[in-house]
Amino acid sequence: MLRPRIIPCLLVHQGGLVKTQGFKSPKYVGDPINAVKIFNEKESDELIVLDIDATANGAEPNFDLIAKLAEECRMPLCYGGGIKTAAQAARIIDMGVEKVAISSAAIANPALLSEIAAAIGRQSVVAVLDVRKRTGLFSRGYEVCTHNARESRKVDPVELAVQLQDAGAGEIVINSVDCDGEMKGYDLDLAKQVRKVLKVPTTFLGGAGSLGDIEQLVNTVGVVGAAAGSLFVFKGKYRAVLISYPTREQKDQLFSTPAA
Questions:
Q1: Burial letters for 94-104: b for 16+ Cβ neighbours within 10 Å, e otherwise?
Q2: What average pLDDT does this structure show over 13-17?
Q3: What domain of life does the UniProt record list for this protein's source (predicted)?
Q4: What is the third-level CATH fold of 5-254?
Q5: CA 63/CA 78 separation, integer angstroms
């Protein structure tokens, strides 16, 4: 039986592990390699690591860090940040990483996903869309952002998700800018819109503040990936840094009720 995946998402900024809120004000929370070791011990389903500096600074992937992560990680690892070519993606996969995540480069050139899929296999290609609600008196719906939400693309994220799926993405990650770091729950309206039209595995990121939020997501849209950052690195209302992950028993209890 297929089960939802619970996926910690780690953000790397200036070599350290950070957590943002609304894609701003990165707070240092530790060392990425140490975090990976802890998630190994806790038997995490998967792990997403995103270098939030690479694309914004026009840099290539941090291959030294990737090699260290891949050597340490004992769970499926998805890495994103600065990937612009099929050759870069293939090099990362050769290091032992299971998936590569592409965002702004894929949005600018969806055909890149086809090239990467041909090089490493579609199952290893993840397209990430950073999405936020449009602002303004007469604005409605959502828009897609790039470069740490500093640039906006006036395209419908649901339509773009389908386009990237058709171009070669084997998985789509929808990351809510508005919910990032808020710990008040996922954007379920957005999740329903996206889930309705996609055929490939889909993961939602942004907003989880409790296991109940993950349960609500799964009960709303079915078997998907439930990714989170703050939930797994903060504890309590003062957000003390403490890495956590649900036990097997907690996950069994969480998904004991059939999802929609």
A1: ebebbbbbbbb
A2: 95
A3: Bacteria
A4: TIM Barrel (3.20.20)
A5: 14
Q: Give the integer Cα–Cα distance in Å for 214 and 91.
A: 33
Per cent of the chain over pLDDT 70 is 97
Beta bridge partners of 228: 8
Assess contact for 204 and 186: CB atoms under 8 A.
Answer: yes
Name the average pLDDT for the chain: 94
Task: Please check the confidence at residue 9 and state whether its pLDDT lies above 70.
Answer: yes
Contact 234, 244 (CB under 8 A): no
Contacts of 185 (CB under 8 A, 6+ apart): 179, 207, 208, 209, 213, 216
pTM value is 0.95
Q: Which backbone phi and psi does 116 adopt, to 5 degrees?
A: -70, -40
**List of E strands, 31-150:** 47-51, 77-80, 99-102, 125-133, 142-146
Take residue 31 and report the two structure tokens written for it: 């060392």
Does residue 120 carry a pLDDT above 70?
A: yes
pLDDT given for residue 134 in this prediction: 87
Instruction: Please list the active-site residues.
Output: 130
3-class SS shares of the chain: helix, strand, coil, % to 5: 35, 25, 40
pLDDT tens for residues 140-167? 799 999 999 888 888 899 999 999 999 9
